Amino acid sequence: MQPPRTILHVDMDCFYVSVERLHDPSLVGRPVIVGGPPNSRGVVASASYEARAFGVRSAMPCSQAHRLCPDAVFVSSGHGRYSEYSRKVAEALRTMSPLVEMASQDEAYLDMTGTERLWGSPVQMGERTREAVRRETGLPCSIGIGPNRMVAKIASGLCKPAGMLWVPAGCEAEFLRPLAPGEMPGVGTKAQERLRALGIGTIGQIQDLGAEGCRQLFGPHGEELWRRACGESSAVVGHDEAVKSVSNETTFDRDSADAEFLAGVVAHLSEKVGGRLRAAGLLARTVTLKYRYAGFETHTAARTLDAPTCDDRVLRRTALELLESRRTPDRPLRLLGVGGTNLLAEGEGQLDLLGAPADDEKRRKLLGAIDAVRDKHGFSAVQTAASRREEERG
DNA sequence: TCTGGGGTCCTAGGACCC
DNA sequence: TCTGGGGTCCTAGGACCC
């Protein structure tokens, strides 16, 4: 039996709102909603606690948020600031432990095992971590502490905002007992519905079923569910892993079945994906297209290429062929997405070693030049005719 | 009420190969 | 004529997370 670990889960408090408040202090103390404009098709990305008091939640349509809280200040997201602050948070956290895993832009796991001499008790570790984040970024966070990732994460969720909660080793099961199953990561709306239909409304009820009971009720994954309900989780805190897919998608302001418009959107998205692949030094072997009809019916289509690519033109041609062969022509679409999966690091592909034809070399230089201009002047500085037309409409 | 955009992981069927 | 078992890859859809 190994000695228990000490895991911290650091969760930034309404991250986007807090970042916006640093840049515009007049937002402090007011209900703030970061997301799309109130009458757009956007959803709430982050809401301040003043807005949450009116029932506003993240992922809620902006129009609904506006109805619930008419006085809220709507701030459009995506100034590119958030990644910058996310990096600062990561830097601050790495001064506390070498084992830091950013789970997303606004949350991280730290394995603090063995740092007691340096930082003191788990609660002192938490205090000092919060101080480090505040000092380096000016941003508030909540901290959950437990013997594993899952318990630490649930703890941080319960003590928000600006809170701290420590669940000592051995107390996991008692801590989880009264909570709703949905508090467990991985148990979403669908799973919770199924549990509710069985009369299960607390994690304690899952514990009481026992390993065997859970297996009978939930099949092969039942035992895993039971173990997690008891507070066991073996996932270690690791370093950030390689990306597995790169995609861009967009919902139109109004639904459209116009072939030329749709082709323009596909071109635009393909250029974005291609640019991101090249910036990351990646090649995609599979191109995916996502399309959603007006009624929200969503489909994906994929094609695996003979040769991996990061070329906008290949991405566009493939996505366009998929779109035109699959979609029902007169049915309006509300969303299109283009993505690359099955990724290889550039140079990993063996085909390149055979010597690229001169044409490919020319193309590569052109794309390199485009990327350089975009680096300096922004994405819109260079676009194909088709994607330019699309941008002008939108 | 009317549903963003970026991801990860899982499942399941079919093709194909040995 | 009736028919294996295992493995991998591809594709589509869906649950879930922030």
Q: Can you walk me through this structure?
A:
This protein is an alpha+beta fold and 394 residues long. Helix 4 crosses helix 6 and helix 10 runs antiparallel to helix 11. The N and C termini lie far apart (60 Å). The chain binds a DNA duplex (18 and 18 nucleotides) through helix 3, helix 9, strand 9, strand 11 and strand 12.
- For the largest beta sheet, what order do the strands appear in spatially? 5-6-1-7-8
- Mean residue pLDDT: 92
Order of helices and strands: EHEEHHEHEEHHEHEHHHHEHEEHEHH
Shape: globular
Low-confidence stretches: 351-355
Largest beta-sheet details:
5 strands, mixed
How much of the sequence is in beta strands? 15-25%
Q: How many DSSP-defined strands?
A: 12
In short:
Helix content is 43%, strand content 22%. By secondary structure, the chain is α+β, with helices and mostly antiparallel strands. Mean pLDDT is 92; it is low at 351-355.
Topology:
Elements: E1 7-12, H1 15-23, E2 32-35, E3 44-47, H2 49-52, H3 62-68, E4 73-76, H4 81-94, E5 100-104, E6 107-111, H5 116-119, H6 122-137, E7 141-146, H7 149-158, E8 164-166, H8 172-176, H9 189-197, H10 203-218, H11 222-229, E9 245-256, H12 259-280, E10 282-293, E11 298-309, H13 312-326, E12 333-345, H14 358-377, H15 385-393
Parallel strand pairs: 2-4, 7-8
Antiparallel strand pairs: 1-6, 1-7, 2-3, 5-6, 9-12, 10-11, 10-12
Helix pairs in contact: 4-6, 10-11, 12-13, 12-15
The chain binds a DNA duplex (18 and 18 nucleotides) through residues 15, 35-36, 40-45, 58-64, 67, 77, 103-107, 185-191, 243-251, 286, 288, 296, 298-304, 335, 337, 342.
